[in-house]
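Lecture notes, unit on protein representations.

Consider one protein chain, 405 amino acids long.
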Amino acid sequence: MDVPEIDLTDPAVLHDPYAAYAQVREQSAVVRLLVPGFDPFWAVTRHEEARAMLADPRMRIEESSFMRPDVPEHCRPYLRTMSETNGAEHARLRRLVAPAFTPRRAAEFAGRVERIVEGLLDELPEREPVDLLDRFAKPLAIDVICELVGIPPADRPRWREYGAAIAAGHGEQFGRAIPAIIDDARSAIAATKAMGDARSANAATEAEPGGGLLADLARVVEEDGDRLSDDELITMVWLLVLAGQTPANLIANAVATLLAHPGQLAALRADPALMPRAVDELARWSPPQPMTVPRFAAEDVEIGGVPIPKGQPVTVSVASANRDPRVFDDPDRLDLTREPGPHLGFGHGPHFCVGASLARVQTGIALGALLRRFPGLALAGEAAYLPDPGTRRLASLPVTLRPAG
């Protein structure tokens, strides 16, 4: 059958992927994506079919789903994170880490996120334009990870450098950052275990909300005695650093979106209780990851009437599925009062983002503090998105702050 095609390097697609997918979504639930230098691959455009694909055990994430950076040999095992596993292996790791990422744990962590947010905002110059992406959103993401992992304050400036290198996604600094992150993660885990050995693991310690993530993960032992190994804990820290770029871009995208929709911004200022809904609507409207990690068909499958041969890569166009009119009323309208719907901004199925609750809390706190402290917040230049079909992220976010008083 004839399937529509989208050239991901087309300037029109890069500028407005939502319009590009809207043109083909009504023709087919699946399209072919073209990228020069690569074989064509498939993308699911409709919401129902996208959810089904992401939950289908026949669609497997493989090593080739990811582009491997060039790192020393001893670092390579740690790059295979939970995100790359399937079936029983994935279920085991998810079962062990999930208790540290529940909505309750995210809510308990909120006070520590608030302190980080306020500290970063205190450092911003109030009388001159500032790049809110580089000076706030990116350092916030890595500072929260440091707080989660238990990195000492004296070491955090170095971790900000790691975060900046990983956010760039390539280059010499990127290559040097990975071994350093792994070495520092190993040291943090050793310090956490030494601290745990020094005090008894009584009930009060177990329930203490101020405990670090590594301490939580190191304490978890299943009834069958299974627990995370030190190598798995190190790999988890690397995954946190990678995943931490998502809330950084979500926060920046959200600020740019709100500033482009003054009516919605005014509504949120007038009713801060809208924030939880607003975060989900902003994640639906401008998701930092407009496409999911490709899955590979373990056998011949059919998606939306389109046959997909065994071994073929398939992604979900989150940008398209999140604006499917079959699921979302008036989907191209930003509406912060919208009832939270089943958007795919955090994925779906076995690989649904395990840190979604924390990302929501972090984003809500960051936006709330910005709007409260800077009622005159305004763009000071163009908020331009990078020409990258794989991520929806800004090159910079220049703003003037204009604090109250």
